[in-house]
Request: fold
Amino acid sequence: MFHWLEKNPFLFSVGVFLVIAFAGVITLIPSFAEASRPVIGTTPYSTLELAGRHVYIKNSCNACHSQLVRPFKSETDRYGDYSLSGEYAYDRPFLWGSKRTGPDLMRVGNYRTTEWHENHMMDPEALVPGSIMPGYKWMFTNLADIDTAYAEQITVTDFFGVPYNKAVPMKDGSTKTIFMGSTVEEARADALAEAKLVAADMKNQDVKDMVAKGQIPEIVAIIAYMNSLK
Amino acid sequence: MHTDADAFGFTVSGIFATWYYVGQRVLKVSMAESKFLMTLGKLHFILYVLGVAAAVISLFMGYTTSKEYAEFEWPIDIAIVIVWVMWGISIFGLIGIRREKSLYISVWYYIATFLGVAMLYLFNNMEIPTYFASGGHGDIMHSVSAYAGTNDALVQWWYGHNAVAFVFTVPIIAMIYYFLPKESGQAIYSYKLSLLSFWGLMFVYLWAGGHHLLFSTVPDWIQTMGSVFSIVLILPSWGSAINMLLTLKGEWQQVASSPLIKFLLLASTFYMFSTLEGPVQAVKSVNAIAHFTDWIPGHVHDGTLGWVGFMIIASIFHMAPRIFKRELYSKSLMTAQFWIQTLGIVFYFTSMWIAGITQGMMWRSHDEYGNLAYSFMDTVNVLHPYMILRGVGGTLFLIGVFMWAYNIYKTMSARPIEESELQSATPMGA
Reply:
């Protein structure tokens, strides 16, 4: 029946390609624009939050923690409102995760504080007896990479029109503007100012000293990021 | 790290190795006939090994895009594309100078592997290096995904699910279509069934990615399509597997006498088992419990250990004596390895089933007042015994891998024998 095709490698390959590409074309293209529209109240990440997000990815937090609340009562009871597509409009890459070895973090900013994170990242078992999460002590000494976060902000503004320095509508009818430095020095200063606000709520003296000297440890950035998850 | 080592280190090695072995035989042509192809083949090997090394180092350094099976940052992605294109030239180059005009079934599957992975990998790894885009700020290795949020998830799982298809399924079917008939001396049971399975698999597989995103924020119709096509996928999958089992029709005594046939038979059995389990998990109501739990990695492991692992192990047991012109070192060692690894896989997936379903049920249970019945920590503590059993299963499999490596090593260093390549069953020492 298909013997002629098996003697013609070129047509055979074209045929295979069309058959496998078909499903992708049908499922991916139609809803692309729809799914990328942000919901009201969703803002881009600030420079420090974005640097914290990079710390989150670098340490593979997403391997054990999801960021996706499914529409079941048991999940909304445990984690808060179920997720909406537009809430992820500025997530590049998405961090939904595939496995909950630990709990979901989609809205962790609603119920955990800076101080809780600080103690928990140092020694999880001290706060959650029986926890199998390791401590992330190096985040208290490693410095966050602000320049790379800034480079990413420039890139997404230029290529995808992410609204930095523009008024974004909020749920209560007001607007909010997420600032992005016009030079890398300005971005560093801006991130430091935000870091100082986070460090003010922290207890670790070494971290406070570093921030006072103008350095931003990874722990400050990742806490800023986790506080922004609401 | 672990999935990448398994997919791109172990499985892709197996794919390349068996292609160079099988391709030359079913096309009745030698690489040595073309100086260009021979050089390309050697270069392909060197670059592949270097690429894998670079990938491992970059992941250890914390350079990751976080996308499953596509964690590598952009410079490694470029290296992967180059290695892949070299393999493509090698495939079509060899086909170009072939003597056997009709392409054997295995070659169909190798071609599909090449095209499928090329398409998926390119689209999923669309990323912009921020260092260049921002005029030289920050880390040169860093890049940002071209897709955001829900779209990124959709593209990722269109890729992720089908990377499993085109790395862990399609090329492995190519192997079994060659090695099982060769080893058993039996002709493939049905040509029509293999035709149906091939085109069916190509068409259906790509739809099923949506089942990773059930109850997420991707559109409902995509989720439903993912579910439905996952069920339909049983047909072509079982088509191939049944074709393999029936190839042994009338020759079942070989299963008892040859450990190599045991590996091949159990590989296709695990394939049937895994391709039934997957669709069950893709049913929406089952997925509500199974998603985010240990049942999912449990499913992955009965596929990768039982099907991919056994198939590549069997392929290398078949190829090594023929390449080195030696008898396999020990049949009894091979039989012992088979039983130890089978036991390991059974421990592994049963413990993961129980763990996953337990956890899924505990997360969703409410007490009589409508409050959540268990804290998250309760659901972590309860898994402890199952994780120990999982560890035992994994250790048994690992012991088997060392036995395999030792057996192959002793085969390579043994005294050569004079044998023509035409015999079907692999010669084995005691």
In short: The mean pLDDT of chain B is 87. The longest strand of chain B covers residues 127-129. Chain B touches chain A through 79 residues (CB under 8 Å).
